[in-house]
Design a protein that fits this description.
2 domains; Immunoglobulin-like; nine-stranded mixed β-sheet; mainly beta; six-stranded mixed β-sheet
């Protein structure tokens, strides 16, 4: 579906900040129904789900090496769990019911306790019926600061999402319909950004932490009013900073930008019809001492380096969907002809094994493939290694190689983060160790 003003409601420059959480141990995150102001102030409200009375849930902010200690309480009418997206943590804390932990039923809870090994921009979200629970608002940002963070005037989290709602604000209750499952997923009727601050000064140096929390929407993005560099993707610092240029974030992907403010910071979704502004950060006043230093790379991530020659090379075919032809799975989507979870893992890897995985998208739709518990290099067409990611985006009929060192033991999910696709067959699991 194309994003245009005939299909989307009018956007607003208003912004909604993510609440900050007090990190007294243990912090409680309570999932419950909430009333949210998704549309501009004065328009209708939306009945959603959230954490601690709000959606997005509270921003959790730690320092690299800290310990996260969270009590999850489930006060909704469905089972749920919390997945800590992108964090290389102990397998038992990964938050996948039936694979790494029991389901957290209504009225019960679960304790998450783990060390945070990597600085970067991450997020947490429901991992049961996620195609519905995430779309209803069960998510929040998780920010891990470097031991010595770069000097900026503002460190700003920017949530990007879309919602399928009426002009009144009422949620359109068509979750799990076959068309969404077999096509591009649940695309919203209204989109906006939610920055954690509403104003900056001209001349400020800012760090923007962009997080696409949408269940299906791929966001091309233009940001005006700043000049700067991309410094990290999916939480992992880039070896060399990159020019901003046209940006794109698939569901679950993140991007860190360090930039200097020259004017109102506007977040624009370019469309064939006209630019669609999703929100702004207003400029009030001037910074009397703006930074003049170069924007340099963040500290390197402490990750295992891949072997010069992979221990194994494996192909994973993405199959099915509308116009996808025949495939061997028993659901709408499949991976190598198999739909959904199986009793045995798709692959077993030795701890520390380097694997070159060819992702072959044989479908008529794009997919964002997410590997739990690990990061991997995207491999360029010339064979050189691209940036580390935990979610890689493939256009329709695209083929891409990724190179992963399986250095985290346990049972790990591998799935499409277009969450309707995951729900209807495009998921599997691996075992490491």
């Amino acid at each position: 579906m194309q994003l245009n003003r005939r299909k989307f409601l009018a956007t607003s420059a208003a912004v909604l900040g993510c609440p900050k959480a007090s990190l007294a141990a243990p912090l409680v995150l309570r999932a419950a129904p909430v009333t949210a102001q998704i549309l501009p102030e004065g328009d209708g409200t939306t009945q959603m789900l959230g954490f601690n009375g709000a959606t997005p849930g509270p921003e959790l902010r730690y320092r690299q090496g800290d310990t996260l200690d969270v009590r999850f309480e489930n006060a909704i009418d469905q089972g749920s769990a919390l997945h800590w997206h992108g964090i290389r943590i102990d397998n038992a804390m990964d938050g996948v019911p039936g694979l790494t932990q029991p389901m957290v039923g209504p009225g019960t809870g679960f304790d998450y306790h783990f060390t945070l090994p990597d600085a970067g921009t991450y997020w947490y979200h429901s991992h049961n019926r996620s195609w519905e629970q995430v779309a209803r608002g069960l998510y929040g940002p998780l920010i891990i600061e470097e031991q010595h963070p770069p000097k900026v005037d503002h460190d700003i989290t920017v949530i990007i999402d879309d919602w399928r709602i009426e002009r009144t604000g009422e949620m359109i209750e068509d979750f799990g319909n076959r068309h969404d499952f077999s096509h591009a997923g649940r695309l919203g009727t209204y989109a906006k950004v939610i920055p954690s601050v509403s104003t900056v000064r001209r001349g400020d140096r800012v760090r923007l932490r962009l997080i696409n929390v949408a269940t299906a929407r791929v966001f091309p993005l233009e940001i005006s009013g700043i000049e700067g560099k991309v410094v990290a993707l999916d939480g992992m610092p880039l070896a060399a900073v990159q020019a901003m240029g046209p940006l794109m974030l698939a569901p679950a992907q993140r991007m860190d930008i360090i930039a200097d403010v020259s004017d109102t910071v506007a977040f624009v979704f370019p469309t064939p019809q006209e630019p669609y502004e999703m929100g702004q950060i207003a400029v009030i006043g001037y910074n009397p001492e703006p930074s003049t230093s170069d924007i340099t790379p963040l500290p390197k991530a402490r990750v295992n380096q891949p072997a010069a020659t992979p221990d194994r090379s494996i192909t994973l075919a993405l199959q099915g969907g509308a116009m996808g032809g025949q495939h061997g799975g028993d659901d709408i989507w499949s991976l190598n002809g198999v739909s959904g979870m199986t009793d045995a893992p798709w692959q077993r890897f030795a701890l520390g094994e380097t694997v070159r995985l060819t992702l072959d998208n044989q479908t008529a739709f794009p997919h964002g493939i997410h590997l739990h518990g690990h990061h991997f290099h995207e491999v360029h067409t010339d064979g050189s290694l691209g940036p580390l990611r935990d979610t890689t985006f493939l256009q329709r009929r695209e083929v891409r190689d990724i190179l992963c060192v399986f250095g985290n033991p346990g049972k790990w999910l591998l799935h499409c983060h277009m969450l309707d696709h995951q729900a209807s067959g495009m998921k599997t699991w691996i075992e490491v160790g």
